[in-house]
Write a structure and sequence with these properties.
Rossmann fold; 46% helix; alpha/beta; three-stranded parallel β-sheet
């Protein structure tokens, strides 16, 4: 088995979510069957959306520091438990030489398999991910139409992420999340923020969601096991 790494802490619950998914997907019969994973849980990484939208503190030096720690620890593939952080993906790969599994490219590949007839895709993400077109560029290249989300619905999504999941108040924001998704008409929705999967168990349209974190976990497991 190959050792894999997770740049985590963005936020901690999202990091737990992808780690738990990797463990469950491995289907181990004993401890020794599990994949060797190094998690660099680094919640001090500055907010990615705040940098993209408002030019606040740059998170890139922190991401690079984390990536190099994981590389030094012998991780042969690395993922980031944060969609918005993929704004820095190319630079991170170019400057560190890590093998980074890109969450957005991976999710688009999953849509082709899971929803072969889908045409209109709604990216449920932070405003930072949306502005940076982390998913949009990959979706358009694959021939999909990206559904435009209103400013009001974007703010609702941000509230569900920051005031809900990140603040450990997930269940208090379930109604707002469901009401918001009902207002967005699409063939498929991408849970394109690593906090969103924590709302999906309560979502009325969860069967129409591609959980980008889950699909990333599947790819990491396949890589480690050599499948």
């Amino acid at each position: 088995m190959k050792r894999i790494g997770i740049i985590g802490g963005m936020g901690p619950l999202a990091t737990i979510d992808i780690y738990e998914k990797i463990v469950k997907l491995t289907n181990a019969n004993k401890d020794q069957d599990n994949i060797p994973i190094v998690i660099d849980n680094y919640p001090q990484i500055p907010d990615r959306t705040a940098y993209i939208l408002d030019n606040k503190e740059n998170p890139y030096p922190y991401l690079k520091e984390s990536a190099l720690r994981l590389k030094q620890a012998g991780c042969e593939a690395i993922c980031m438990a944060c969609n918005t952080a993929h704004f820095f993906a190319k630079k991170l790969v170019d400057e560190t030489g890590i093998n980074l599994v890109h969450i957005a490219k991976n999710a688009v590949d999953s849509i082709k398999v899971e929803f072969p007839n889908a045409k209109k895709i709604a990216v449920i993400a932070t405003t930072g991910t949306t502005k940076a077109k982390i998913y949009e560029d990959n979706l358009i290249s694959a021939g999909y139409e990206c559904v435009k989300i209103s400013n009001e619905n974007m703010q609702n999504i941000m509230d569900c992420i920051y005031k809900g999941v990140k603040a450990n108040k997930t269940t208090e924001y379930v109604k707002l999340f469901n009401d918001t998704i009902d207002c967005i008409q699409a063939d498929v929705y991408i849970a394109a923020c690593t906090e969103i999967p924590l709302l999906l168990p309560y979502c009325k349209k969860k069967d129409l969601f591609v959980d980008a974190t889950l699909d990333l976990a599947k790819t990491m497991v396949k890589f480690s096991l050599g499948k």
